[in-house]
Automatic annotation (TrEMBL):
Function of the protein: Required for the transposition of the insertion element.
GO BP terms, alphabetized: DNA transposition
Keywords recorded for this protein, A-Z: DNA recombination, DNA-binding, Transposable element, Transposition
Residues in the signal sequence: none
GO terms for MF: DNA binding; transposase activity
Name the record gives this protein: Mutator family transposase
Presence of keyword Glycosyltransferase: no
Lineage: Bacteria, Bacillati, Actinomycetota, Actinomycetes, Mycobacteriales
PROSITE patterns on file: TRANSPOSASE_MUTATOR
Recorded family membership: Belongs to the transposase mutator family.
Highest taxon listed in the record's lineage: Bacteria
Length: 185
């Protein structure tokens, strides 16, 4: 069975419990970008810049205690005006704080679901444009071509590899007991 280190999700109810039952060692992480966007959904447009500035110390905190203190400060400043935004963060807190246990390199990788959502949107757009496929092979070819079109020259592979090197090194250290090929001799 595959070993899953992280599951970054957008707050879908029941998903953390389901993943915990099937993959007990998996860390379930709420998408930080979704939390921030959710906060803005409750905030007035005139306060967005100030709220963004007040939220930054929460998700850039060095540990869970510092983040909790920053959330308390955020609540003191904005709690009376936007209590639903505070409730959003408090309800997601147990799935937010695992993010803070890791190095910056890993945090950059697990903070958001935006990359996969973008890819899924491109897949949906391509499938919708074609309507139907005569065979499963034709559908798979369509998805393959959409994936290849993300980097038509092939130069993005080098950029992707360089962007992931620090994260892969941090994963190898953090999950040395679970990551194949990271054993030290």
């Amino acid at each position: 069975m595959a070993d899953i280190f992280f599951l970054v999700c957008d707050g879908l109810k029941g998903l953390p419990q389901s993943v915990g039952a099937a993959f007990p060692d998996t860390v379930v992480q709420t998408c930080v970008i979704h939390l921030i966007r959710g906060t803005f959904r409750y905030a007035g447009r005139q306060h967005r810049d100030a709220i963004a500035k007040a939220l930054r110390p929460i998700y850039t905190a060095v540990n869970a205690e510092a983040a909790a203190a920053a959330l308390d400060a955020f609540e003191a400043e904005w709690g009376n005006r936007y209590p639903a935004a505070i409730r959003l963060w408090r309800n997601a807190w147990s799935e937010f704080i695992p993010f803070l246990d890791y190095d910056t390199e890993i945090r950059k990788v697990i903070c958001s679901t935006n990359a996969i959502e973008s890819l899924n949107a491109r897949y949906r757009r391509a499938v919708r444009a074609r309507g139907h496929f005569p065979t499963e092979q034709a559908a798979l070819k369509c998805l393959y071509l959409v994936t290849r079109s993300l980097d038509p020259t092939g130069t993005g592979q080098k950029r992707w590899t360089m962007r992931w090197k620090p994260a892969l090194n941090a994963f190898a250290i953090t999950f040395a007991d679970r990551m194949p090929g990271s054993e030290t001799t």
